[in-house]
Design brief:
The complex is a heterodimer of chains A (313) and B (531).
Chain A lengths: L2 E12 L2 E7 L2 E3 L3 E5 L6 H8 L7 E6 L2 E2 L11 E5 L10 H9 L7 H11 L12 H13 L5 E5 L7 H14 L4 E6 L2 H5 L4 E6 L2 E7 H7 L1 E7 L13 E7 L2 E6 L4 H11 L3 E8 L2 H12 L18
Parallel strand pairs in A: 4-9, 4-10, 7-8, 8-9
Antiparallel strand pairs in A: 1-2, 1-3, 1-5, 5-6, 10-11, 12-14, 12-15, 13-14
Helix pairs in contact in A: 3-4, 4-5
Chain B lengths: L1 H13 L1 H22 L17 H28 L16 H31 L7 H24 L4 H24 L13 H23 L2 H17 L5 H9 L12 E4 L8 E4 L5 E11 L5 E14 L4 E3 L3 E2 L10 E10 H8 L3 E21 L5 E3 L3 E7 L7 E9 L6 E9 L10 E10 L14 E7 L11 E2 L5 E22 L17
Antiparallel strand pairs in B: 1-3, 2-3, 3-7, 4-5, 4-6, 4-8, 8-16, 9-10, 10-11, 11-14, 12-13, 12-15, 12-16
Helix pairs in contact in B: 1-4, 2-3, 2-4, 3-4, 3-5, 5-7, 7-8
Classes of the chains: A alpha/beta (313), B alpha+beta (531).
């Protein structure tokens, strides 16, 4: 498998603060990879390292096969970058900005530009500084997609946008997705759940896990076991069970390694007096909450060892 | 090239107002500055800053000269900050900008809107001043180089390490404070320590250091965007420049630059101890009261025909019978020029008060080393003083200057030279006493007035916003009435003698059994009393 982005033991320190700690991200070519995590987790730092805006303290990163420290100049014509924090040439009109950027890209597609302008309903004669936040983001998208980049890097591109604009941008992005790799960061799980193919979870500078979205949602289940009598929290549960709770005659937990065949037998063996065992699919948000709480030592699972969350690319 | 042109066009569109202001100021300079040459009846010679003191025209021209660098500062800062190099959120960082092309675009912008208009303005000023610009191409280009080294490049460097105009102004304020602090620290040093020897290396060294430091900062910032490295370079540059306030490299080079006179060779000027009559050595406190200034009367002679001797520095070695020895650092020599013939003069040197007290008690042997430049006569021309502009070889264009209250009488000449002060020129003429009456015959009484103008080695250009330099030669003796006042009149023959540097030499004068004079009390003016 070839990777559009790959980092190994990546560390970034700002003075005594460790912003990224031993991060190993792998983004397969063609993926829509969502890097999620709370604010301050290190998502933007990681993206700026990939874009060679920051330099790694130790470790390495490759972007489209090139060491991130050499990502510059003409190589950037293969990357489309949009960030909520990025400044824009505010004094320019939208049309002027697009005309200006054309000079930097040999692969600039005028037809695609026209199509994007139409799709995003961009006012070419308005100055960027006079545009709404959503419209500015759409202009940034158009100027970053019109040259058909091999890799699109988006740093919190959808945060703070109204649902209509968000949908427009996602549609615009997905239209380009078949011909590119998308790497985006977000702290809003709901906004990336619908279209991401891969997901990585970054917290306090550490990548807790990364996985293909289908695999992740397939192996996480919220299990509810109804017993005949009153339930107590069982001891010695497998490490892959998180947040084991007991109340009345019900035991609940999150199974992090669920499979139809093996898990049913495993749970039946653990709860021989079970009247009913139900395993419900979980939304991404619930999965991340379960993992986050477990990692913070919140809840019942302190007695358990940490879940062994392997990379399943 | 496409990228360079795109960035250039973008900057030109965005900063059209700044560009317009810069070009308008240059046009204003072209309109106003030549008018200062036509101002008649100069009240006094106010030397090189006279354009600020000649009424509304001078004030206006002076204001324009001050405003132009300020406009350039804004022009440069805005262009650099448009793609600022400090920070991590700039729009251009993630676009395929090539730093060399970005730098190239900024250079093209400066060339188009600063250098070319400035060059053209300088050419037009030369033309207006009566000079053919083509003959001064070297000087014009040298002036652009100086502008780059001490103006444009340092501003570019400071702009690269700042995030905006406000920050840049704060940094400039900081630089100004550092310069003031260094000057204050220098002035706080005892005057017997500080040297005022002629510029041998320090001037060019300072320009070179500023140029290299600024260039390194700009390249580091554009090439690698390392703000810390940029700041460190500029900090080092500042420290080096400040160190010259306390250490003058020229002082250490005097002996090498002015080789000792070989035996058998004639001294450029022979000095002999010249105490006689009322001309006796004197001692006064230096201005800062921390040292003693010793003045020794001397007789200067022996200058060869066709030469002028210009002493530039001196060093004193003092010994006494008790075996004590004191050696001064090289000190500046009062600006004097010696032509053939004998002339009385004074040699001054400074020493620490304690040294003075130590050596005052008994006679000393003084060995005074004098470093001097010999200049030889290169050309001479005699021109009857006309009533209008007249060309003087090696100087430029001159015109008579008149008394404000008595326009018939000429007090001197005002000269314009191209790109620099004129070459060192000895101007002499015969005075007329009693005023110049219209239609009356010249009444020359053979009293000669003379003055010097210009520099011995002016170089191709001196840095300036204007390409035409003014020099005033005062040749009058003011008086309260016509009989006392001596003037030049129209038709008076003016002699202009130009000198070129010939050689530099160092020679010693020994004064045995010299008694350090008593300190004059209460005033810095020397009290000369016969011993």
């Amino acid at each position: 498998m070839t990777f559009a982005i790959r980092t190994e033991n990546l560390v970034k320190r700002f003075g005594s603060t460790v912003a990224l700690d031993d991060v190993g991200v792998e983004v397969p070519e063609g993926a829509i990879y969502a890097l999620v995590g709370p604010n301050g987790a290190g998502k933007t730092t990681l993206i700026k390292l990939l874009m060679n805006i920051f330099r790694p303290s130790t470790g390495s990163a490759t972007v489209l096969g090139l060491d991130s420290r050499r990502v510059a100049s003409s190589f950037l014509s293969q990357i489309g970058y949009v960030s909520e924090n990025q400044e824009a040439p505010d004094w320019m009109r939208v049309g002027e900005m697009l005309r200006y950027y054309r000079n930097f890209y040999s692969d600039w597609d005028r037809e695609l530009e026209t199509q994007l302008v139409r799709q995003f309903d961009l006012p070419l004669d308005r100055k960027l500084k006079n545009l709404s936040r959503g419209m500015r983001m759409k202009a940034a998208f158009a100027s970053s997609l019109a040259y058909r980049p091999r890799l699109i890097v988006l740093d919190e591109p959808l945060s703070g946008l109204d649902p209509l604009v968000r949908d427009e941008l996602i549609v615009g992005l997905l239209d380009r997705a078949p011909e590119t790799t998308v790497f985006l960061s977000s702290h809003d799980l709901a906004e990336i759940e619908g279209f991401s193919s891969h997901v990585g979870f970054l917290e306090k500078g550490r990548l807790l896990f990364q996985e293909e979205m289908a695999s992740l949602t397939a192996r996480f289940r919220e299990v509810t076991v109804t017993l005949n009598g009153s339930a107590t929290a069982p001891l010695g549960v497998p490490a892959s069970w998180l947040q084991v709770e007991a109340a009345d005659s019900v035991v609940r937990f999150v199974h992090t390694n669920y499979s139809e065949d093996e898990s049913a037998a495993e749970m039946a063996g653990f709860f021989p007096a079970a009247r009913d065992i139900r395993a419900d699919a979980m939304r991404l948000r619930e999965i991340f909450l379960a993992i986050a709480k477990s990692n913070r030592g919140v809840g019942q699972s302190e007695i358990n060892t940490r879940p062994s969350l392997e990379v399943r690319a | 090239m496409r990228q360079i042109l795109a960035i250039f066009a973008k900057d030109a569109r965005r900063f059209w107002l700044e560009i317009l202001i810069c070009i308008s100021l240059l046009i204003a300079l072209l309109l106003v500055y030549p008018a200062t040459w036509r101002v008649e009846d100069l009240p006094v010679d106010i030397s090189r800053i006279r354009i600020f003191g000649e009424g509304p025209t001078g004030l206006l021209a002076g204001s324009v000269v001050v405003l132009i660098p300020i406009a350039w500062l804004v022009l440069i800062a805005r262009a650099v900050h448009c793609e600022r190099l400090v920070g991590n959120t700039q729009f251009w960082l993630t676009r395929p900008y090539d730093w060399r092309k970005l730098l190239g675009a900024k250079l093209l912008y400066l060339a188009a809107f600063l250098y070319v208009p400035f060059f053209v303005a300088q050419c037009v000023l030369l033309r207006e001043g009566g000079f053919h610009p083509f003959h001064y191409l070297g000087g014009l280009l040298f002036n652009l180089l100086l502008l780059t080294a001490v103006g444009v490049l340092p501003l570019v460097a400071l702009a690269t390490i700042t995030t905006g105009f406000g920050r840049l102004m704060l940094v400039l304020l900081g630089v100004a404070l550092v310069i003031v602090a260094a000057a204050v620290a220098n002035s706080a040093m005892p005057s017997y320590v500080t040297s005022s020897v002629p510029d041998i290396l320090s001037g060019n060294l300072a320009i070179g250091v500023i140029f290299c430091g600024s260039l390194a900062t700009a390249i580091v910032m554009y090439g690698r965007r390392r703000a810390k490295a940029g700041w460190l370079i500029l900090l080092a540059l500042t420290l080096v420049m400040c160190s010259t306030a306390f250490f003058d490299p020229d002082s250490a080079l005097v002996e090498r630059y002015y080789p000792e006179l070989s035996s058998g060779s004639a001294a450029p000027v022979a000095f002999a101890y010249g105490a006689q009559g009322l001309n006796q050595p004197g001692a006064t406190f230096t201005d800062d009261k921390r040292g003693v200034d010793i003045a020794i009367p001397m007789l200067a002679s022996g200058v060869q025909d066709g030469y002028v001797a210009i002493p530039e520095a001196l060093r004193v070695i003092m010994t006494n019978a008790a075996g004590a020895r004191w050696e001064s650092p090289w000190q500046g020599f009062a600006e004097e020029r010696f032509l053939p013939g004998m002339r009385a003069t004074w040699v001054h040197f400074r020493m620490r008060r304690s040294v003075y007290e130590q050596f005052k008690a008994m006679p000393v042997t003084l060995r005074v080393s004098i470093a001097a430049t010999m200049a030889r006569k290169a050309s001479e021309s005699v021109i009857p003083l006309p009533d209008a502009d007249f060309a003087v070889p090696e100087i430029g264009v001159c015109k008579p200057t008149r008394w404000m209250l008595s326009p018939d009488e000429i007090m001197g000449i005002a000269c314009r030279s191209a790109m620099n002060n004129p070459r060192l020129t000895y101007v002499s003429a015969l005075w007329t006493s009693g005023g110049c009456k219209a239609g009356a015959a010249l009444d020359l009484n053979h009293v000669m007035i003379n003055n010097w103008v210009g520099e011995l080695d002016p170089g191709p250009a001196e840095f300036g916003i204007t390409s035409v330099w003014d020099a005033h030669v005062n040749l009058s003796r003011p008086g309260t009435n016509d009989a006392e006042r001596w003037n030049l009149c129209e038709g008076t023959p003016m002699r202009f003698t130009q000198y070129l540097p010939a050689r530099r030499l160092r020679d010693d004068v020994t004064i045995p059994s010299f008694h350090l004079p008593e300190l004059a009390i209460g005033d810095k003016l020397m009290l000369v009393l016969p011993r």
